[in-house]
Amino acid sequence: MSAPVPPTGDPRGIDREPVTRWLLENIDGAEGPFTFDLIAGGRSNLTYMVTGSNGTRYVLRRPPLGHVLATAHDMAREHRVIAAVGRTGVPVPPALGLCTDVEVNGAPFYVMGFVDGVVLDSVDKAAELSMELRRPAAEHLIDVLADLHAVDIDEVGLGDFAKREGYIERQVKRWSTQWENSKTRELSAIDEVATVLRTKIPTQHGVSIAHGDFRFGNCLTDVRQGRIAAVLDWELCTLGDPLADVGYLGVYWYDGEAANVRANDPTPAGGFPRYADLLERYAARTGRDLSGIDYYVAFSCWRLAVISEGVYARYLHGAMGDQLVDIDQFKVGVDGLAERALAAVRRLA
């Protein structure tokens, strides 16, 4: 029997021959040839499904193609946190290997195990989760976040992962700088919100692993059981105030305000608990005081606006591979988030 012929037409960002060699040499049980498929929906780091000749599936992550801020998209950092969290009860894909040799694929990348599940990133996707399982899934989502925030950072080897104190102050400074480096136009709401955030920084509520982008859309959900199968997209992870993650989840939770509906949020489909119910559950599980959560929601809207502007800028420069999207949606999304953040901080005054 002749050997299988490798497929052609690989997506941009994959150099087949050297990547294949690396996989065979570094991933236990990997058998080539491999197929490489860009997973739709990745709008920052590029994510590919890798399927071996024996049917085993893996996931490969690499940075965007060019036009990337120098400190962004650190594959080694992302791989490190997944490997560390994987030693806890928090569900994450298994970290299988890291390649830092840019000669292999033009940029560092890492490989993790494939986890079955559904990314609930739209109202349509919510239909895959039965009405009776929507509350349990949401409750498990907030429980997973509470468990993540309970991880002993020293015990899992992340004690030196980032500075422990001054998280919000550092974040406001970081994203203000990123706005200046990535913006495609002037937007006064961004500057006004940044000023208010700097003057009203709350006392940090302890030090935890802060995911930075925690929501249904960055998790794989087992829709048969109504439970989170794996937490994904750790590129924004750092150490910091756990309430930042809690506030960010509020950006992606529908509570009846039509202006706050996000296209990649499944909760407008109905059947999910209120955001207030999640806050109550988190507070009961962790003992943390959430009375100042509105600041963190405002901060999260502003930060997400800055991040979205960076994604929009990369699409304009053709740095996001072969993904076909309406890039104008990102510009409109930035404007909406900026206005939502501005309205929130004005309520703080």
In a nutshell, what does this entry contain?
With 349 residues, the protein is α+β, with helices and mostly antiparallel strands.
Please tag this protein with its features:
two-stranded antiparallel ribbon; 12% strand; alpha+beta; 2 domains; 349 residues; Phosphorylase Kinase, domain 1; 11 helices; Aminoglycoside 3'-phosphotransferase, Chain: A, domain 2; 9 strands; five-stranded antiparallel sheet; globular
Description:
This protein starts with 15 loop residues before the first helix and ends with a helix. The chain folds into two domains: 16-113, Phosphorylase Kinase, domain 1 (2-Layer Sandwich); 123-348, Aminoglycoside phosphotransferase (APH), C-terminal lobe (Aminoglycoside 3'-phosphotransferase, Chain: A, domain 2), CATH 3.90.1200. The protein has helices spanning 16-26, 75-85, 102-105, 123-126, 131-149, 167-182, 188-199, 243-251, 275-286, 293-316, 328-348; strands at residues 35-38, 46-51, 57-62, 95-99, 109-113, 208-210, 219-222, 227-231, 238-240. With 349 residues, the protein is of the alpha+beta class. 41% of the residues are buried. The protein contains eleven helices and nine strands. The strands form three sheets. Strands 1-2-3-5-4 form a five-stranded antiparallel β-sheet, sandwiched between helices. Strands 6-9 form a two-stranded antiparallel sheet. Helix 6 packs parallel to helix 10 and helix 10 (293-316) runs antiparallel to helix 11.
